[in-house]
Design goal:
Strand content: 35-45%
Distance between the termini: 19 Å
Number of strands: 3
Number of helices: 1
Shape: elongated
Strand order of the largest sheet: 1-2-3
Order of helices and strands: EEEH
Helix content: 40-55%
Length: about 60
C-alpha cells in the first residue's frame, strides 16, 4: 500500500445513523467491508499511513 491510494467506496446501507458497505483499494485490487463511518476512516487512514511509513524507511535506508 502507498501514500497515494485510490479508493472506491460502495455504501450498501445507512442504518443506526452510520454507513455500511465496501471499500476497494483500486491500486491493490483489495476489498473489505466496513460497518461504520469510523471503521471506513480507520481503514483509509491505515492504508495511507502504511505508505508514509514505507517512504520514510526507504528515505532513511536509501
Amino acid at each position: 500500500m502507498g501514500a497515494n491510494q485510490t479508493f472506491l467506496i460502495h455504501i450498501i446501507e445507512d442504518q443506526n445513523a452510520t454507513w455500511q458497505g465496501d471499500i476497494t483499494w483500486i491500486n491493490e485490487n483489495k476489498t473489505e467491508r466496513f460497518r461504520s463511518l469510523l471503521e471506513l476512516i480507520k481503514l483509509m487512514d491505515a492504508a495511507v499511513g502504511a505508505g508514509k511509513k514505507e517512504e520514510e524507511m526507504s528515505r532513511l535506508t536509501g
